[in-house]
């Protein structure tokens, strides 16, 4: 008569959050949402364009669509296009002010490189 052994299933490693916001990005979005028309939300997606193949795209939308993931961090909600989630897992969104410009930036651990002008990336 044979014996059967069963092993407990291996614990899955926790995935990093889809996207997080720095304090500066959260503060800027709160200010933008307060000034905005109604209850519009920022939607982050990835489009195919630029020298390296992909580019971050941000739009204000009335409500989450059926293909949107909702990310809430530091009390601020951002929508992420479900098609972009695999490219954005673990991304940190920041807001930077420089001498001649200001805007949102993304630190994405999935990026393998960026074009020379920094407008597009590839994974």
TrEMBL record:
SUPFAM superfamilies from the entry?
Answer: HesB-like domain (SSF89360)
UniProt cross-references to Pfam families, sorted A to Z: Fe-S_biosyn
Q: Which Gene3D superfamilies match?
A: HesB-like domain
Q: Which InterPro entries match?
A: ATAP (IPR016092), ATAP_core_dom (IPR000361), Fe-S_cluster_asmbl/transfer (IPR050322), FeS_cluster_insertion_CS (IPR017870), HesB-like_dom_sf (IPR035903)
Q: Which domain of life is it from?
A: Bacteria
Core domain location: 19-119
Q: Which family does it belong to?
A: Belongs to the HesB/IscA family.
> What name is this protein filed under?
Iron-sulfur cluster assembly accessory protein
């Amino acid at each position: 008569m044979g014996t059967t052994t069963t092993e407990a299933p291996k614990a899955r490693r926790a995935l990093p959050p889809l996207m997080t916001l720095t304090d500066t990005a959260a503060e800027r979005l709160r200010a933008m949402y307060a000034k905005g028309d109604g209850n519009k939300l920022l939607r982050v997606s990835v489009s195919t364009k630029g020298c390296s193949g992909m580019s971050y795209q941000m739009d204000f939308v009335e409500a989450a669509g059926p293909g949107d993931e909702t990310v809430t961090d530091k009390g601020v909600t951002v929508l992420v296009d479900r098609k972009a989630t695999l490219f954005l897992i673990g991304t940190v969104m920041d807001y930077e002010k420089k001498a001649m410009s200001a805007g949102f930036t993304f630190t994405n651990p999935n990026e393998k490189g960026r074009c020379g002008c920094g407008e597009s990336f590839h994974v």
